[in-house]
Amino acid sequence: MTDFALPLPATPSVAIRNSQQRFPVRRIFCVGRNYAAHIREMGNDERDPPFFFTKPADAVVDSGTVIPYPLATENLHHEIELVVAIGERGVNIGRDAAADHIWGYGVGIDLTRRDLQDVAKKAGRPWDWAKAFDHSAPCGPLTPADRNSIPHSGRIRLSVNGETRQQGDLAEMIWPVPDIVAICSQAVELQPGDLIFTGTPSGVGPVVAGDRLSGEIENIGVVELEIAARR
User: Fold this and answer.
1) What are the chain's domains?
2) Taking a C-beta distance cutoff of 8 angstroms, is the pair 87, 81 a contact?
3) Where does the chain have alpha helices with state H?
4) What digits encode the pLDDT tens for the residues 113-160?
5) What pTM did the predictor assign?
6) How many Cα atoms are found within 13 Å in the side-chain-facing hemisphere of 222?
């Protein structure tokens, strides 16, 4: 038996819809710029191929959580996204075989320290400090996948204090779920427990302490979050 110098950290996990079990989270991959309207609102070229960035597994928080306004930012933004949960390992997965590797789907919010991201972009630096911070990956309960059905369409929306901020359809994704799984697996071996945040529609914007966020994806689920004061 291995003797560790420190107590082992808790295993990050996500709730499962209508179950007492939880889905253990191994890694979080995020797709940048996967909805044309969002690409345009951020001033980028929608013809660019997809790219990925990561968040730490322990960035996940359950729906209904109250999180502190993050450190080191004055411009925290919301980005509602479909989340794909991987259940079977695979490398160089063909898009036609993607469904065999998917365990389920959920609704996530990619919280972003936009001011830090803007600085990183201008300096040509990584986005880690803008994306991979504490509590930056809220995720609602996962819905187990129907192996015969991948969500290619469905309304996706997010409201802040009851006001709709983001609204679109999964059909607007430039790279649909099978492509995202296939492309990601060309660079890393996907493993059970991996989550993939698949990009956000247009309408991203700032939130402040006291705001309540509510997101949903048709036939997938919901995620809710409240922003408290900075610690």
Assistant:
1) 22-228 (3.90.850.10)
2) no
3) 36-41, 114-123, 128-131, 177-184
4) 999 999 999 999 999 999 999 999 999 999 999 876 899 999 999 999
5) 0.95
6) 7
